[in-house]
Automatic annotation (TrEMBL):
Protein known as: S-adenosylmethionine:tRNA ribosyltransferase-isomerase
Family the UniProt entry places it in: Belongs to the QueA family.
Native species: Sphingomonas edaphi
Catalytic activity line of the entry: 7-aminomethyl-7-carbaguanosine(34) in tRNA + S-adenosyl-L-methionine = epoxyqueuosine(34) in tRNA + adenine + L-methionine + 2 H(+)
GO cellular component: cytoplasm
Pfam families: Queuosine_synth
A GO biological-process term: tRNA queuosine(34) biosynthetic process
Alphabetized Gene3D superfamilies for the sequence: QueA-like
InterPro entries linked: QueA, QueA_dom1, QueA_dom2, QueA_sf
Record keywords, A-Z: Cytoplasm, Glycosyltransferase, Isomerase, Queuosine biosynthesis, S-adenosyl-L-methionine, Transferase
């Protein structure tokens, strides 16, 4: 499909620079089939049925934004995918000043060597020393806020808490599964009281999620792969809930993409461990997911393509026009939507 079909006019001031406080006070646009209504995140338990399952991503964001020196040149690096215990692929600013074998000093006794490049220009960085890379990043790194936020304000200490979900357990993401940022203990208590179940999986979100689609047609766009895992016990519980009539509602596009990657043609979710580069656009036949809670995405983004595949492009364009007209806040720190196909 033509990428320009997914374009719309988003006023820059609609991109939220800070999250709602409290988190569950954010607004929520309910879209069921072609019908929409304005709610809040706290309304979520009443919008689902007992036996439904909310599926969360328990990845934890690491401080993957680094600033360093290669000789006299300033170099910025955003880690996006782990290669091994000491090596990460990174998108590098000023990459033309970095050659294979060069040493980059990120300060605070954190150094890495450039190993090689991939076909898309990312650089493999090998971190020196014996300390775990996660400890090095805690010393030298910053939280990797999306560029649409970081370009408008500085990254500060509050982002270290604000940009983590309450489910964050397993370190490895360089972007938050932002739909789950809205959840609080009181909201989870109301969900449990309603008889709605919660499950977790892991998808380490990469910085590729921020990259614009540069191709004119979706068939020419290549997604960056991300590592994910669903264990056998979780897969069995999800399949059992669906067999009993419950709906699987992914909390965030990351959970949705991993569920769809793990599902067979018959809709059965299998245990999964490995990389996925699934790219969902209109025409895709969903196998595992019956609904999606997600924030509002940017024009011509792969995530707006995904929600359009779930609900229909015309429906999502109307929903987003409604959100813009009624002052919903967009993107990572913004408001949310609950999308339930007819």
């Amino acid at each position: 499909m033509r990428v320009d079909l997914f374009d719309f006019d988003l006023p820059p001031d609609r991109i939220a620079l800070r999250p709602a406080r409290p988190r569950d006070a954010a607004r929520l646009l309910l879209v069921t089939g072609e019908v929409m209504s304005d709610r809040t995140v706290l309304d979520l338990p009443g919008l689902l049925q007992p036996g439904d399952v909310l599926v969360f991503n328990d990845t934890r964001v690491i401080p993957a934004q680094l600033e360093g020196k290669r000789g006299d040149a300033t170099v910025g690096a955003t880690l996006h995918k782990r290669e091994d215990l000491r090596s990460w692929w990174a998108f590098v600013r000023n990459a033309r000043r970095v050659r294979d074998g060069d040493l980059i000093d990120f300060g605070n006794d954190v150094r890495a060597s450039a190993v090689c490049r991939d076909e898309q220009g990312a650089i493999l960085l090998h971190f020196h020393g014996d300390e775990p890379v996660e400890l090095l990043l805690e010393r030298a790194g910053e939280m990797p806020l999306p560029p649409y936020i970081a370009s408008k304000r500085g990254i500060d200490d509050s982002d270290r808490a604000d940009y983590q979900t309450m489910f964050a357990r397993k370190e490895g993401a360089v972007a938050a599964p932002t739909a789950a940022l809205h959840f609080t203990e009181r909201l989870l208590a109301a969900i449990e009281e309603r008889g709605i179940k919660c499950e977790t999986l892991t998808l380490h979100v990469g910085a590729g999620t921020f990259l614009p689609v540069k191709a004119d047609d979706t068939t020419a766009h290549r997604m960056h792969s991300e590592w994910g895992q669903i264990d056998r016990a979780t897969a069995d519980r999800l399949n059992a809930a669906r067999s009993a009539g419950g709906r699987l509602v992914a909390v965030g596009t990351t959970s949705l993409r991993l569920l769809e990657s793990a599902a067979g043609e018959d809709g059965i979710i299998n245990a999964f461990e490995g990389d996925t580069a699934i790219f969902i656009t209109p025409g895709y036949k969903f196998r595992a997911v019956d609904g999606l809670m997600t924030n509002f995405h940017l024009p011509k983004s792969t995530l707006f393509m995904l929600v359009s595949a779930l609900m229909g492009l015309d429906v999502m364009k109307r929903a987003y026009a409604h959100a813009i007209e009624h002052d919903y806040r967009f993107y990572s720190y913004g408001d949310s939507s609950l999308l339930l196909p007819a």
